[in-house]
Design a protein that fits this description.
The complex is a heterodimer of chains A (115) and B (112). Chain A is mainly β. In chain A, a hairpin with a 2-residue loop joins strand 5 and strand 6. Chain A starts with a strand and ends with a strand. Chain B has 112 residues and is mainly β. Chain B is globular and about 45 Å long. Chain B is 0% helix and 60% strand. The chains are: A mainly beta (115), B mainly beta (112). Chains A and B meet through strand 4, strand 5, strand 9 and strand 10 of A and strand 4, strand 5, strand 9 and strand 10 of B.
C-alpha cells in the first residue's frame, strides 16, 4: 500500500516569503507528526495531530509556524515570513493511533531552502 | 545535555564486522525506537522496544531500562548497512508521550 507522501520534495524560497508543505499520511492513520531535521542533526518534534486536532504543538519554534489537518487526513505545515534559519528537511510521519508502541512511518521529507 | 545521547557519532567498519551502536537517555520512557536513515532522507523504523531484546535478521536491539541504555547490534555487516542510525524515545508523561525525542544519529559506513 501507499506510504506517507510529502510534497514538494524540494522547495527553494526567498527570505520573507510564505511556504506550505503538504503531508499525505497512510490511509486510516489517526496520528500525524511533523518533525524538522537540520543538517547533521537528528529530527526535532514540531507538532502532533490526533485526528483533526493539534494534540501537542509544543515544538513549533514561534508563531510563524502553523499546521492544519482539517479533515483528519492530509496536513499542511505553513511557514510565514521565512528566515534562512528555517532551512531544513521537514519530515512527516503517521501512526495508526498515536500510542507509544505504534510504529511511526516516515515520509521522504521536504527539503526547504531559504535564500 | 541532550536527553538522548548516541555513540559513536561516526563509525567505519569492514564488511563482516560486528557493529554496536549505543544510546543513553536521561528521561523515563514508554518506548525506545531505532531508526535507519539513508542518504536522501528516508527514515525507516527498525525496532520499537520497551524491554528486553528484539532480533530481525542480522539486527539485534537490546534495552536496559534500569540503566537507561540501549544498543543496536549488526552482525556480519555489509556495505548496504551504510546509513545513519538514530535512537529515539517516547516519554511517559502527558506532553512527552506524544512525540519522539531523537538522538543526533550514528553515521555508519561499511567498506568492502
Amino acid at each position: 500500500g501507499a506510504g506517507v507522501s510529502q510534497t514538494p520534495s524540494n522547495k527553494v524560497t526567498e527570505k520573507g516569503k510564505y511556504v506550505e508543505l503538504r503531508c499525505d499520511p497512510i490511509s486510516g492513520h489517526t496520528a500525524l507528526y511533523w518533525y524538522r531535521q537540520s543538517l547533521g542533526q537528528g529530527p526535532e518534534f514540531l507538532i502532533y495531530f490526533q485526528g483533526t486536532g493539534a494534540a501537542d504543538d509544543s515544538g513549533l519554534p514561534n508563531d510563524r509556524f502553523f499546521a492544519v489537518r482539517p479533515e483528519g487526513s492530509v496536513s499542511t505545515l505553513k511557514i510565514q515570513r521565512t528566515e534562512r534559519g528555517d532551512s531544513a528537511v521537514y519530515l512527516c510521519a503517521s501512526s495508526l493511533r498515536g500510542r507509544s508502541t505504534d510504529t511511526q512511518y516516515f515520509g521522504p521529507g521536504t527539503r526547504l531552502t531559504v535564500l | 545535555k541532550n536527553e538522548v545521547e548516541q555513540s559513536p557519532q561516526n563509525l567505519t567498519a569492514q564488511e563482516g564486522e560486528f557493529i554496536t551502536i549505543n544510546c543513553s537517555y536521561s528521561v523515563g520512557i514508554s518506548a525506545l525506537h531505532w531508526l535507519q536513515q539513508h542518504p536522501g532522507g528516508g527514515i525507516v523504523s527498525l525496532f520499537m522496544l520497551s524491554s528486553g531484546k528484539k532480533k530481525h535478521g542480522r539486527l539485534i536491539a537490546t534495552i536496559n531500562i534500569q540503566e537507561k541504555h540501549s544498543s543496536l547490534h549488526i552482525t556480519a555487516s555489509h556495505p548496504r548497512d551504510s546509513a545513519v542510525y538514530i535512537c529515539a524515545v517516547r516519554g511517559t508523561y502527558t506532553g512527552t508521550a506524544s512525540k519522539l525525542t531523537f538522538g543526533t544519529g550514528t553515521r555508519l559506513q561499511v567498506t568492502l
